[in-house]
């Protein structure tokens, strides 16, 4: 998912999308695609919108399918998912992630081993500073949202999920229902958040693994420090 503007850090980006910040010698989105390719994940779709040309330039020489949300400034990621829904087929499993999230290699290894679905990644080490908050019990999502109190929060949502092939038909059905209801401002994850009465959402805690979402300049600095330490 790489269609958004990223208003909180935009003044530092000179018009480029958050996913195009430099991570070492390459852009974040290129780092991510190359990491997935390294793990034999080569069937990749990217949904663009804001400043698409930066993303195209960043990914030169790499293979991927491209979809575009031309309404990125008035919709959210559920609309991006709707535009890319033809990519989702019920004969394969999918990792869905926000383009502005940096992850270390072990996060992909963990995801590939997991069989439960839908599976959302969360970090129990981030409570007080959490942005989008989860409460889970027995590894199942109970509450979600930015407004959860510290006492209610079990961890922060990482911005990555794994959806197995058996859940794709349900996902696309709910996607189209919500779009028909004009819920264009929803996140794609709301497909599952707002279906908890029908289907469990499973949580995998990645406490101890490194990840960062590039929302603020401080997040970017954390990534640079991690990369220096990991050399």
From TrEMBL:
Gene3D superfamilies: Spore Coat Polysaccharide Biosynthesis Protein SpsA, Chain A (3.90.550.10). GO terms for molecular function: nucleotidyltransferase activity. It holds the Pfam family NTP_transferase. The keyword RNA-binding does not apply. InterPro entries: GlmU-like (IPR050065), NTP_transferase_dom (IPR005835), Nucleotide-diphossugar_trans (IPR029044). The keyword Cytoplasm does not apply. Keywords: Nucleotidyltransferase, Transferase. Residues 1-110 form the Nucleotidyl transferase domain. Signal peptide: none annotated. This is Phosphocholine cytidylyltransferase. It comes from Arcobacter venerupis.
């Amino acid at each position: 998912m790489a269609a958004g503007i990223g208003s909180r850090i935009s003044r530092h980006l000179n018009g480029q999308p958050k996913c195009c910040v430099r991570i070492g010698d390459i852009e974040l989105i290129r780092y991510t695609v190359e990491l997935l390719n390294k793990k034999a994940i080569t069937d990749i779709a990217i949904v663009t919108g804001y400043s698409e040309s930066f993303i195209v330039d960043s990914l030169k020489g790499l293979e991927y399918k491209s979809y575009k949300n031309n309404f990125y400034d008035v919709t959210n990621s559920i609309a991006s998912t709707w535009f890319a829904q033809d990519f989702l087929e019920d004969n394969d499993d999918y990792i869905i992630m926000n383009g502005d999230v940096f992850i270390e290699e072990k996060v992909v290894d963990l995801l590939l081993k997991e069989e439960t679905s839908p599976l959302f990644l969360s970090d129990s080490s981030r409570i007080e500073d959490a942005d989008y908050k989860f409460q889970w019990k027995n590894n199942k999502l109970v509450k979600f949202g930015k407004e959860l109190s510290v006492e209610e929060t079990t961890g922060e949502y990482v911005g990555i999920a794994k959806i197995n092939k058996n859940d794709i038909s349900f996902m696309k059905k709910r996607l189209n229902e919500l779009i028909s209801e004009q819920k264009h401002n929803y996140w794609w994850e709301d497909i599952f958040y707002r279906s908890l009465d029908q289907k469990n959402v499973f949580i995998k805690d990645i406490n101890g693994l490194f990840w960062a979402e590039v929302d603020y300049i401080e997040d970017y600095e954390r990534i640079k420090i991690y990369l220096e330490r990991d050399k």
